[in-house]
Amino acid sequence: MDMHMIYAGVGFMLAAYAVIGNDSVQTLGTFIASNIRVFKWYWLWLAASLVLIFTLVYGWYVNEGDISYGRLDKIPPIEIQWYHAAAPAVLVVLTRFGIPVSTTFLVLSVFASTVILEQMLVKSIVGYGLAAIVAYVTWMVLAHFLNEKQNQVKAKHRPYWRVLQWGSTGFLWFTWLSHDMANIAVFLPRELPFELLIMAIVVLVGWLGRIFYKQGGKIQKIVLEKTGSRFMRSATIIDFVYALLLLYFKELNNIPMSTTWVFVGLLTGRELAIATVHRADYRLGYVFPLIGKDFLKMMIGLGVSVALVLAIHYMINPVT
Q: Which of 11, 60, 161, 220 has the fewest CB atoms within 10 Å, counting from its CB?
């Protein structure tokens, strides 16, 4: 085994943990928050694991061994160096501090050219803006009918909302994985042998179990701070709107993007809409520091990503 394979293995393990530990809370955070008091963590883990296994096997089968769903078409395979493995290591450190860093920027930026990085950034900015606008309009309408500061679902209707929530979360989890699996697959062969597929599934399911056992970890705080995110009905609507946004960008083109930015944009637009409608008991002075803090954390992650890619392209491995 040469050093390139060792770097690839280390990078894969770190990226797998970072993606599941940092980014998956975007999709599973509301699911965990609204179900953890009803179901044991291992039942939630089992449900999420089944969707993950289906997504990987389906992508591997229909894309001839490519589990990235074509997200790496613009990033040619290269020999993994130590600095490629260092990128997810930085992400793991930032995750420990609860910073919602874009895994796409931090991991894929060290593999991509500056041109692709620019395209990734533009698509992510558009994603943030569109998500905020869609969420604002959607919750401006919903806020006139639903008070998401309170859990007002009647007891007889809760089983139906529970089914809807599990369905919307499964849809979102599948859509999100088809975006962000590229951040892990970049360390693996583009045509993945079956035995490596099984290995990837085992590793990811294992990390996923840890996240459910820890009830989302520190990143979960970003979800819990938002209005009504623990409520089953609110979680269902958030997941469904987020899934539709990701599906749109998935079909738009195969340029990777930051799903973190889309998620934060969605929560931003939602909070602003709720605050706008319920002005009497929801002050905008509370909202702006909240969304500003999330945006600042995103900028920290982007700054680290840009610094890494510039260091690699112009200092560590300059192109002559």
A: 161
